[in-house]
Write a structure and sequence with these properties.
heterodimer, A: about 130 residues, alpha+beta, four-stranded antiparallel sheet, 3 helices, 4 strands, rod-shaped, B: about 1000 residues, alpha/beta, twelve-stranded mixed sheet, six-stranded parallel sheet, 46 strands
Chain lengths: ~130, ~1000
């Protein structure tokens, strides 16, 4: 009977191997899940940053060039969902006097305590 | 058995676990891949965006280089051929200058030696620039292609640079322009440019303009006030508001510049010098900072309009002008034998002897042309002596109080230089009040030097002349101080509104500005290829026959010239004759691809009526239902019909239509757009050599309500239309379609209720009807009774018996003619003895210590008033024209009264005044027109109907007109935002993103 009972159960080795396999699988899955979550969060923040930067650029481009320097250079703006406020900043460099400007819109935010940044650059000519 | 079963059970568990693990791993892999793709996709999206803006950056850099190179800057000869020294040529056919080495002026800029593209250090773009050649000819457009790259992601944009965009201006006028009581709003994006002088009259509001520029002066005219000064009216002292001033005496007008950015420039508009107005110029906002009309307040501080010293050069120029163009009512050069001049020479050549002034000047001019040194100083001194007493009789109390008589003769003789106010003997721009004072005695009027010449060419000698523009609008202290505060009072280019300094002023060529917009043939091609063309075209059969006939004819001529083969000549001749006999009957056919959308109509145009043989005639109108066009386009999209890809261009030429071969009629043919609240997607451009009527609100927000006749007072509509551009945050706020109206004639904006009159409407006032019916009369015929077409209609009252000014008239005759008023005086007598606009001193008849004057116009106006009154009393509206009242097109009636507000969103390009003409009586209605308003030069115009009679009171323009800038060419606009003609579709788009492979 004892013999039969021993034969019915998993051996210690079998149990250990199974546990090891399960631990490996579940561990890697947990790691992956965490990584996926971080990646998705990062992508969403990145999209928000890019979208906000693009929106700001289009807003700026819809103004007469003469107004842009005074109105927008150094301007900061909030980006919904990204902290700290204000996350966005406009930088305009005059390349040629009243003719050509380089426009940078940068969005910087904290991602789980780490700094992240997205920048879009373009230029505006007064032609 | 049991053992085997147990073993199988463990195996099943093992397999199950294994599968579970596989599934879990699979799920993990899928998630991993999806997340990875998400990340890659997100990253590529941002890279793509960066590449796009890098490409845009390249466009900006290259466009700056282009503007710095006077629009001649190319990196490539064509898209695939980089410029090299070997290929550098001046294309003499197309006048293209390809410069090599290619000038690069911006920091870090260079030409890549491999690709020949323009690049800038640290920037992720490369740019090609090349001239656009169409059918072998330079189109006037520079093509820029810029490719941005970021992490191997590329985006490419194409930008076609025209030298100038017509729609950079809210308003562009090709010659002198008088701006009246209107509101202009440039939305800080569009300005006003006038190729000439800007005259300000009335009350205008300039809101948010970028610039007001002129190639000439900016002047405020005094209103005509000839006869009333020092008359029976008391002059109010020290008025504080224009409203206190009688409109008879002073212009009750003011200009308000509601702007933070309007700059005023005159002269060379390329000059970097300009001044910015940083605050309101409004009496309300800045008391005292408005125009000051208090010229005669007695303070002595503000009594001096700008005046002139007339020197020998002035005299010579005017004399030259008269020699070339003939004198005006007063000739500067007398033919009086008692006023002679002895032409002398500074080289001691024998003098010519005493000649009449006209002969002397002619001789002197010829001599000078032949190189002889004429002593002009002596000449003009003689001339001055001859005219030193010309006007003594008109001086106040016989005393000369300001200037010299010869100076007055100079100014009077300038009559024919073109007077904007009906020819009162006063040169353009001269302050009438000052002139009157100078001529009739006022010790505050004097000549001082304040003029600047502008160069013109003499039509007589071909030499350059100094033609003087008379700027007498010296403003009062408040205005002066304001000018000074803003640096507008300094000498120098573009420094002031009122300082004369227009030499080398820049005249912009409107045709060059408009480019293909003004090219009707080009527009016609667009309409025939993807648009709607309505008009006459040559039939295909005729075109084929003509080609065959021409070919045979050429062969025949060649054979004749050869002369060696008689048989061939005879054969070709017979073929030619046969071919000729086969000429198709119909050379032309009428095209109207949208007959279901059009209707031919006939009604009277009360504003520009056609008069033939003394009768008003109806005008021919082709009505186009825009809603029906929309439906047709939708239908064709479903069925693949010809308008499935409608390009937005409609060209209508009624001169080739089935009517209007009559030269008078054709000038009145018109195209009328109805139901135009919603335009086809992509917009609508209508071009026609005919008149354009726009009936009802036009081109409203297509995303808004679509019900016809929606009130333009709808707050949502108004908010979208009149909001300042800077307050518009979303592109959705500017939803209407791009639209253009281009015509060689007039544009009329009508209300929805325009009644298409089948009878010529009556005037608003019955007294005005008198003028309208009595067309062809002369000024002196005001006193003739009866109408030439109705000789038995003796309606005029006995003017002599009812004349209220009789005492003054009698006084006049007592003073000057020593006799009573002739009992039988009539128009002829008046014209002979009392010339129009003549002023007679009456003495101080109202005992106010001042001389009083009477003018001929006082009498004329008074008598006209009695005539009108009598006409009114004898003819009632109902008795003559029925009692149907307004808006009944089936009977003669008064015009439709407009009390609503209407909005028209379209650029308007016409050789005539863009404000158009109303065919209704806009009582208290209002028009808001958003667009760009470009006036073509006169040589682009077709004549309007010859109106045989005045049209007083048949129509009235709204008291409130607002013109807002909406160019649709602004930064960030899409190709579909642009009007169709010229720059909108396909390869002619101004801006578009293109495939990377096309780079």
């Amino acid at each position: 009977m004892n013999k039969n009972k021993r034969k019915q159960a998993f051996t210690l080795m079998e149990t250990l191997v199974a546990t090891l396999i399960m631990a490996t699988v579940l561990g890697s899955m947990a790691f992956s899940l965490s990584h996926f979550t971080r990646t998705i969060t990062d992508s969403a923040s990145q999209d928000k940053a890019i979208s906000a930067a693009r929106k700001k650029i289009e807003e700026i481009l819809n103004h007469p060039v003469e107004q842009i320097m005074n109105t927008y250079n150094g301007q900061t703006f909030n980006v919904t969902g990204l902290t700290p406020d204000p996350a966005g900043k406009v930088t305009i460099n005059e390349i040629a006097f009243e003719e050509l400007y380089d426009l940078n819109v940068t969005v910087s935010w904290n991602e789980r305590g780490n700094p992240a940044t997205q920048t879009i650059e373009t230029s505006i000519a007064n032609y | 058995m049991v053992s085997i079963f147990k073993k199988k059970k463990k195996a099943v568990i093992l397999v199950t676990c294994f599968y579970a693990i596989i599934v879990l791993l699979g799920l993990s892999m899928v998630s991993f891949l999806r997340v990875s793709n998400e990340g890659i996709s997100s990253s590529r999206d941002s890279d793509s965006l960066r590449a796009f803006y890098a490409a845009e950056s390249g466009i900006s850099y290259a466009a700056t280089e282009i503007t710095r190179s006077s629009y001649q800057w190319y990196t490539h000869r064509d898209k695939n051929t980089p410029l090299t020294s070997q290929q550098t040529v001046t294309d003499t056919i197309n006048s293209i200058q390809l410069d090599y080495p290619i000038p690069v002026t911006l920091p870090g800029a260079m030409i890549d030696s491999d690709s020949g593209c323009y690049t800038v250090s640290g920037k992720n773009f490369k740019v090609k620039s090349y001239p656009e050649i169409i059918d072998g000819f330079y189109s006037g457009t520079i093509v820029l292609i810029s490719q941005g790259e970021y992490n191997n992601v590329k985006r490419t944009t194409e930008y076609r640079v025209g030298k100038e965009s017509a729609y950079q201006y809210l308003m562009f006028m090709p010659q002198d322009y008088t701006i009246g009581s209107l509101t202009f709003n440039g939305r800080n994006a569009g300005g006003i440019h006038v190729n000439g002088n800007i005259y300000l009259t009335g009350n205008q509001y300039f809101n948010y303009l970028t610039t007001i520029t002129s190639a000439g002066y900016m002047l405020r005219l005094q209103r005509y006030q000839y006869g009333d000064y020092h008359g029976n009216y008391n002059y109010p002292s020290s008025p504080t508001s224009p409203a206190q001033l009688s409109y008879h005496w002073y212009p009750s007008n003011t200009s308000r510049f509601y702007t933070g950015t309007t700059t005023f420039t005159t002269g060379d508009t390329n000059s970097p010098e300009s001044a910015t107005l940083n605050y309101y110029l409004s009496q309300t906002e800045y008391p005292g900072a408005s125009w000051d009309y208090d010229k005669y307040s007695g303070s002595g501080a503000d009594t001096s309009p700008a005046q002139y010293i007339v020197d020998d050069t002035d005299l010579k120029n005017l004399a030259l002008y008269e020699m070339g163009n003939g004198p005006g009512s007063v000739s500067m050069l007398s033919s009086d034998s008692n006023q002679k001049i002895n032409v002398k020479y500074t080289d001691h050549s024998p003098a010519e002897g005493a000649l009449t002034e006209a002969d002397a000047f002619y001789i002197a001019s010829l001599a000078e042309k032949e190189g002889k040194p004429v002593d002009w100083t002596s000449f003009w001194q003689d001339w001055r002596n001859n005219h030193k007493n010309d006007y003594q009789q008109y001086h106040h109390d016989g005393t000369l109080t300001g200037g010299e008589d010869w100076q007055r003769r100079f100014f009077w003789s300038a009559y024919n230089w073109g007077d904007a106010y009906g020819g009162n003997g006063i040169p353009d721009g001269v302050n009438r009040e000052w002139w009157q004072d100078l001529s009739y005695g006022d010790d505050r009027a004097e000549f001082v030097n304040d003029l600047t010449p502008a160069k013109v060419e003499s039509t007589y000698t071909g030499e350059g002349l100094d033609l003087y523009y008379f700027n007498t609008e010296k403003q009062a202290p408040a205005w002066d101080a304001w000018l000074e505060d803003n640096g507008l009072d300094q000498i120098g280019l573009n420094k002031t509104l009122v300082q004369d300094k227009t030499q080398d002023g820049k005249y912009l060529d409107p045709t060059a500005l408009l480019g293909k917009h003004a090219d009707f043939d080009n527009v016609k091609k667009k309409a025939l290829n993807g648009g709607i063309y309505i008009g006459r075209v040559e039939t295909a059969a005729y075109a084929a026959w003509y080609n065959e006939y021409l070919n045979l004819f050429n062969q025949f001529i060649a054979a004749l010239n050869d002369g060696s083969n008689i048989g061939l000549i005879m054969n070709l001749f017979s073929q030619l004759m046969f071919c000729y006999s086969q000429q198709p009957n119909e050379q032309y056919e009428l095209l109207n691809p949208v007959p279901e959308c059009t209707e031919e109509k006939y009604f009277f145009n009360p504003a520009q009526p056609v008069v033939i043989d003394g009768q008003y005639k109806k005008t021919n109108v082709l009505e186009i239902d825009v809603n029906a066009i929309n439906a047709r386009i939708a239908s064709d999209k479903d069925t693949g019909g010809p308008l499935a890809e409608f390009n937005g261009v409609i060209y209508v030429d009624l001169n080739d239509y089935n009517w209007s071969q009559n030269s008078l009629n054709e000038n009145a043919d018109s195209v009328m757009l109805i139901n135009g609240e919603r335009l086809p997607e992509g917009g609508l451009s209508l071009a026609t050599p005919n008149n354009i009527y726009l009936k009802g609100n036009y081109n409203l927000d297509p995303d808004g309500f679509l019900e016809k006749n929606r009130s333009a007072d709808d707050p949502a509509v108004i908010a979208r239309v009149i909001s300042e551009k800077e307050h518009i945050n979303e592109s959705a706020d500017l939803k209407w379609q791009p639209a253009e109206l281009i015509t060689k004639r007039m544009v009329y904006t009508l209300s929805d209720d325009f009644n298409e009159p089948s009878y010529m409407p009556m005037c608003y006032g019955r007294a005005q009807q008198y003028y309208d019916e009595y067309y062809g009369r002369l000024a002196g015929q005001d006193y003739v009774q009866g109408h030439p077409y109705y000789p038995s209609d003796s309606w005029a009252p006995d003017v002599a018996a009812t004349r209220s000014i009789k005492p003054r008239v009698e006084q006049f005759f007592q003073d000057f003619y020593e006799g009573p008023v002739p009992s039988d005086w009539d128009a002829s007598w008046i014209s002979t003895n009392w010339p129009t606009n003549h002023v007679w001193p009456l003495g101080d008849i109202n005992d106010d210590g001042k001389m009083d004057y009477l003018r001929a116009n006082d009498l004329i106006n008074d008598v006209q008033g009695h005539i009108e009154s009598a006409y009114d009393s004898k003819y009632s509206f109902a008795a003559i024209h029925g009692s149907e009242g307004n808006n009944n097109p089936d009977t003669p009636s008064q015009l439709n009264f407009v009390t609503d507000k209407y909005i028209y969103n379209s650029a308007i390009i016409t050789p005539y005044d863009f404000r158009g003409s109303s065919m209704e009586y806009w009582y208290d209605g209002k028009k808001i027109i958003n667009g760009a308003f470009i006036q073509l030069p006169d040589n682009s115009s077709y004549k309007l109907p010859v109106t045989g009679s005045p049209t007083y009171g048949r129509s009235r323009t709204p008291s409130q007109n607002t013109y807002n800038y909406e160019s649709r060419f602004g930064r960030g606009s899409k190709p579909s935002d642009r009007p169709s003609i010229g720059l909108t579709f396909g390869e002619e788009a101004s801006w578009r993103e293109i495939q990377n492979d096309f780079f």
